[in-house]
TrEMBL record:
Organism: Dictyocaulus viviparus (Bovine lungworm)
Sequence ranges assigned to domain BAR in this UniProt record: 27-255
Entry annotated with the keyword Coiled coil: yes
Chain segments annotated as coiled-coil in the UniProt record: 168-215
Pfam families in UniProt: BAR
Keywords: Coiled coil
Gene Ontology cellular-component terms listed: cytoplasm
Family annotation (InterPro entries): AH/BAR_dom_sf (IPR027267), BAR_dom (IPR004148)
Protein name per Swiss-Prot or TrEMBL: BAR domain-containing protein
Amino acid sequence: MTQCPGFTETGKGVVTQSEEIASGNKRAIKKFFHRLKESVGIVERTQFSKKLSETMEHFDQYKVDYTHRAFQLCLDHLSDALYTATQENGRFRTAVPKLELAPPPKEDQYEVVASCLTDNKTFEDYRNHKQQVTLYEKQAIEHREYLRRARRALHNIRTFVQHDYWVIALQRTELDSLRSEMDFAKADLAAEKEEQLAEQKRKIYKKAADAYEQKLAEVTSSMNDFPKHRKSHVADVLEWAKCTRSYHDKMAKLLGDDVVKKD
């Protein structure tokens, strides 16, 4: 069937489409100016509860120190320090696709020394040559096991720094966006004089408010879990310290046994 001139595939006339585009542009401009006024404090902005705001601020400072004060320890600094203490060679502290500490096969520092002693014929004439090779091979095994256990001990900290924090940050970004949408819908409704349009805008405002409240509950729940995160991070540090002490005790024993054999 031949369509009338000016009739589009959507079933709307060109005039109707133009009116909708103009209406959409007008709303976008009004929203832009509303957010501009919001940014300078001219219009009212929905505020989070004092408790939630303080928790968010503490949450951010806990993850990363924005104040650049040397005495204020944050989880990023602590995590870096622990991983550096565990694996001193920065080449093996890879973060992509996931944080690893163990070097590739035959590249551990003790494996390199053992290989050098084995391959270099110069050392074969030394009296305790085989004993030294065996010692470094055993140290390599202990070192790799330590790297594995230490990394596992810091699981909760690593997960929070690399994943959990950013999931919550995304939730908060979405919450801010929904808050702006709700505040604009509220202001737009308050400014409307025509009852027919006001009824439509009441529905828009209710939809925006419901979406905001739903996301607010989600963010609040995440913030309420913050103390649990902190508790698990303390447990990680204690487990790492225990693991590190055990490693050094084992390495000291290997060296002690080697000294006894020499005597």
